[in-house]
Amino acid sequence: MEDRRDRLRALGEFVRRRRKEAGLTGKDLALRAQIAQPTISRIETGQLLPTPETVDRLVEALDLAAASRAELDALVLRLRDEISRLKGGLAGRESANMARVRSAGRVVAFQAGMIPALLQTGEYARLCLAFGSDVDETDAAKAAAVRVEAQAVIFDPGREFSFVLTEGAVRTWPGTPSLMLAQLDRLAQVATLPNLRLGIVPWTVPAPGLPLHGFTIYDESLSVVESLTGDLTMSEPDELASHLGAFEAFAAVAVYGDALRELLGSIAADFRKLVPRFEK
To answer: What is the pLDDT of residue 88?
Structure first.
């Protein structure tokens, strides 16, 4: 709770500081943005989380530069994510995550231990979301449904997606070998989309570094690291540069196209051998 209050205060201070830099009073900003003055006051004092429409009006009224807009968006996004998690459990958190995906024009993701959320089958997603001793199975199933429904964005030709996985991420399997065979089919299918680039770093080549964690970058302005207890949102230029550099390094040694399909076929053959042992 205290973190949320601190973030609301940080958001309010950001708006207040930018207003003063623009030489505006609270009344001036309210008139420019066509927002009630008490609303401006509540935002600046950390009592109110602005709606998306209010944020857009503030950005226009304050004539914020791209960097300042990204900073404001990051502050608002962290608060919305936290509130969604508190109100809606896993399904609420997933809805907040997918809203972020739907608002992005370009998504870049790297994973070393699992299939990225946008490429998961429904059952794979459910098992990922259900991991943990205190997870409600019904909540996990609802969250998985939200995740799968939101995957429709990858078929939007106006958006661009780039994914790089290690072979370890593709070979790490929850559930059953048959589940992974379905997941491999899903990867092979999405790899044919013209607006989506999928690469896998095979274990037969040296990795450019040790992948400490996966991450997803949205419009090169926000990077999100998924953890067991929540998402870590990073928007500082040095953080983004580090993640983009890591992505590019792994992308440079990944395989694509025919080589990717050949690798997926080889991994699928290994999973088929496991079916008799684990699915009797």
So the answer is: 53
